[in-house]
Design goal:
43% of the residues lie in helices and 23% in strands. The protein is α/β, with parallel strands linked by helices and 745 residues long. The radius of gyration is 39 Å and the shape is elongated. This is EAL domain-containing protein.
Length: 745
């Protein structure tokens, strides 16, 4: 976007020299769609001897650029009607003579690359400092002045030696000449500014005193250029030494031209002879150090994860591809690992994303310490990492490193005083037995990782073909589950709840079943996990809400009008913003009293987003719907939630009930839960009661409402209504808030 000397000269003839000759102040166009930021930018520059014009949209900026000549545009990339890149394209297409400084909050590398490719003078990432902006603008105006002065002097060089000297000495580039021995015969003042050597110190010295040792061989050909005309014009990058005390070498782009001296020989008898003798070299060296550094930063960021500084997915695939080629050539094996952190989402939900990012950084450091030299660890995204282990001797090498990973992650992580424990699920694929391409190895390692997840997490597993069959079965199950909703294959079963004091049924827990066309009746545990993973819980929960309301109408018609129906909600369903409206709409549509409904939640829902959960449950309470805590004691929440949330019922999880083996034994967790319920005046239900010993122990210690195989197995709606009718219609009321019907998806 910076103009060439010829373009500048043409612009000068049309009045573009107004700024450089002092006729007016440099004119700046400020473009930003945020009024506050635009006003702040205007105030920052208004006292700096600039003429300022503002624009809040792309169309307004284009109109100003068409009407007025500007020296500099300060441009935001994100505008309401067009992007900053489009405005830069407009400037380039119209050959508008102005510089552009891009200011953007976009953290993506593509935005910066796009701006630099379109010729932006600089790219400032928001928020930028006041000093950085002022310095960049001043440098741009200064460089523009130098460029225009340089071009003007070049136009007058043919007729003015004085103008030539001024141009050379004020040039932003090093301009020099060498004799045929490679010694300096002229150098401008820019050499002192950039390299720290005066003109007197360089004249007569060989060029090699400036060239970096590693570039001397290339410089020998460059500085001895003997070609003339267009054939001699080329760009070569060389590193030159600095003597100004900063200890940094600088990189220069050398544009070289050869000067030849035409001489006429002495008159001899055979005639005149014209001789061309090599005289030396004329060169222009442009400092591109900052550009090279910017290119290195951009290149590094394009291939590395900014958070962990690990190779990203693109660089990992590149290195894996090279490792595969080498393994194929040497007939060796290599391993690819896919690592997914267990319980990472819980850290994000409880401590926030900032702590989650800190955890990922600590995990990356620990994993890197376990690697061999030559191994590559990369971050795929989120909490997923990939590793390539080249030159594998045997599978035990991969197994050993995987064990090291699990061991290092077993130690607690300290996140500003919060002690966090996590683990990992690791899948391993080996070349060439598990795949010969990059995509095959990554996919099979991913499948092996999910197999570890399914088996309880915190472990590693090598891929084998049976896993692929299981993966296909999961895909088929997901597809069939989507059809099950459309073809009405889902059904609610009910497990009666018993008042052991009277032996009567006082409610039931609903359990979802799937009448699979080929596999028969499937329990909820066989398909609901897939629904959670694949985004099907919301439509399934919608179906469940409608099915339960329809079933409740049948109970009311058969004398069960006092039963309370409890919906065991998926966290995803509760998090959905329209859940309350869905519930209220269903109750109105089917004419059901809210007092018959009890929403059943788990403790973990309380810590996902406690404030939002509390708002939702309080709205249900105002509607007349009560709340129950399911699987009490198995989650991570505090007992304070029993006070903060509108809870009416708690349920003893079957994992605690199974521990009861002696009715005269002591089971403190059971006793504590019973005591909490009694102290807070809450209803209490024990789940999973399977033996007479368990029933007697619970009853003896104050829990009189139970369910489990000891009394009834889950039955269909028709069978459940039949059982109710056999015991005489409406179930008897208990001593609490009334009988309940707990429904669990």
């Amino acid at each position: 976007m910076n103009p060439t000397p010829a373009n500048v000269i043409s612009a000068l003839s049309q009045g573009a020299a107004r700024t450089m000759e002092g006729d007016s102040l440099p004119r700046l166009l400020l473009v930003d769609d945020e009024p506050r930021l635009l006003a702040s930018l205007y105030e920052l520059l208004r006292d700096k001897d600039y003429e300022l014009v503002t624009a809040t949209t792309g169309a307004e900026a284009v109109a100003q650029l068409t009407r007025i000549r500007f020296d500099l545009v300060l441009l935001d990339l994100r505008l309401p009607d067009m992007s900053g890149h489009q405005i830069m394209d407009f400037i380039n297409e119209r050959s508008i003579d102005c510089d552009v400084i891009v200011m953007s909050g976009d953290v993506g590398i593509e935005a910066a690359i796009g701006a630099l490719k379109r010729g932006a003078y600089d790219y400032l990432r928001k928020p930028y400092s006041r000093e950085e902006l002022l310095k960049t603008v001043a440098n741009c105006i200064k460089q523009r002045r130098l460029a225009v002065a340089h071009a003007r002097m070049a136009a007058q060089l043919e007729t003015s030696e004085k103008m030539y000297r001024y141009l050379v000495d004020s040039s932003p580039d090093i301009i020099y000449t060498l004799n045929h021995e490679g010694k300096f015969t002229f150098v401008n003042d820019r050499a002192y500014q950039l390299l720290g050597l005066t003109r007197e110190e360089l004249i007569g010295k060989h060029y090699s005193i400036l060239v970096h040792e590693e570039d001397l061989e290339r410089a020998r050909y460059v500085f001895n250029e003997r070609r003339v005309d267009e054939r001699a014009s080329r760009n070569v990058e060389l590193r030159l030494k600095c003597f100004n005390g900063n200890g940094l070498d600088r990189t220069f782009n050398n544009t070289l031209m050869t000067i030849s001296l035409n001489s006429i020989g002495m008159h001899v008898a055979d005639g005149d002879v014209t001789k061309h003798e090599f005289f030396g070299t004329y060169g222009v060296a442009r400092d591109i150090t900052d550009r090279k550094r910017a290119e290195e930063v951009i290149s590094y960021q394009a291939y590395h994860d900014i958070l962990t500084d690990l190779p990203n997915r693109m660089l990992f695939k590149d290195r894996l591809g090279l490792a595969v080629i080498q393994a194929k050539r040497k007939l060796t094996e290599l391993a690819v690992m896919f690592i997914d952190l267990d319980r990472f989402k819980l850290v994000n939900d409880t401590l926030g994303h900032v702590k989650g990012d800190e955890l990922l950084q600590q995990v990356a450091i620990r994993l890197k310490d376990c690697l061999r030299r030559g191994d590559t660890l990369a971050r795929q995204g989120g909490d997923e990492f990939t590793i390539v282990l080249p030159e594998l001797r045997d599978r035990d090498d991969a197994r050993t490193i995987a064990d090291k990973f699990l061991e290092c992650l077993h130690k607690p992580f300290d996140l500003d005083g919060h002690e966090v424990h996590i683990s990992a699920s690791i899948g391993i694929a080996v070349y060439p037995s598990d795949g010969e391409t990059i995509d095959e190895l990554l996919r099979h390692a991913d499948i092996a990782m999910y197999q570890v997840k399914a088996q309880g997490k915190n472990g590693h597993s090598f891929y084998h073909e049976a896993m692929l069959d299981m993966s296909h079965q999961k895909i088929q199950l997901e597809q069939a589950l989507r059809k099950a909703l459309e073809q009405n294959e889902l059904e609610m079963y009910y497990q009666p709840q018993i008042d052991v004091a009277t032996g009567r049924i006082i409610g039931a827990e609903g359990l979802m079943r799937w009448n699979h066309p080929t596999r028969g009746l499937l329990t909820a545990g066989e398909f609901l996990p897939f629904a959670e993973e694949n985004g099907l819980m919301l439509p399934i929960s919608d179906w469940m809400l409608g099915a339960l309301c329809r079933d409740l109408l049948m109970w009311n018609a058969n004398g069960g009008g006092d039963l309370r129906l409890s919906l065991n909600l998926s966290p995803q369903y509760l998090d959905r913003g329209d859940f309350f409206e869905k519930m209220r709409g269903a109750l109105v549509r089917y004419g059901i009293s809210p007092a018959q409904i009890e929403v059943e939640i788990t403790e973990n829902i309380c810590i996902r987003n406690p404030q939002y959960a509390m708002e939702q449950l309080n709205k249900l309470g105002q509607l007349g719907v009560s709340v129950a805590i399911d699987d009490f004691g198995t989650g991570y929440s505090s007992l304070s939630y029993l006070h903060r949330f509108p809870v009416h019922t708690i349920k003893i999880d079957q994992s605690f009930v199974k521990e009861i083996g002696d009715e005269n034994g002591h089971y403190p967790v059971i006793l504590a839960i019973i005591s909490i319920a009694r102290g807070l005046g809450l209803n209490l239900i024990a789940e999973g009661v399977e033996t007479d010993v368990q029933a007697r122990y619970l009853q003896a210690n104050g829990c009189t409402t139970m369910q489990g195989y000891h009394y009834y197995r889950p039955v269909s709606l028709t069978s459940f209504i039949g059982v109710l009718q056999e015991q005489g219609g409406t179930p008897q009321e208990d001593s609490g808030d009334g009988p309940r019907l707990a429904i669990q998806a």
